[in-house]
Amino acid sequence: MKPKVYIETTVVSYFVARPSRDLLVAGHQEATRELWPSLFTVYDTYVSALVFEEAARGDTAQASSRLAAIKPFRMLDIDEEARTLAAKILSEKGMPQ
What is the residue extent of each domain of the chain? Predict the structure, then answer.
C-alpha cells in the first residue's frame, strides 16, 4: 500500500507556473517539478474539490494547465464545514482564531 499525499493548490501552481524571478519561489517551483513525476509512482495522490475550484480560477491558460496537472489525482469530496473553514482561512490569510 502506497502512502497517501494530499496536494493543495499552491503545489500545483508551482508546478505549472512560468519560472519566477524570486529566488525562493523559483526554488519551490524547481523542487515541485522534480518531485511531480514520483507523485504517481510513490504515492496515492489526492486533491479536494476546493483545490479543483481554486485551480480553475485566474488566467485561462494557467488554469487549464493546473486542471490538466491534477486530472489524474483522486478527488476528495468536501462538506459545508470544510467550505466554511476554507473561506475563513482565505479571508483571514491564515488559520482563524
Answer: 4-92
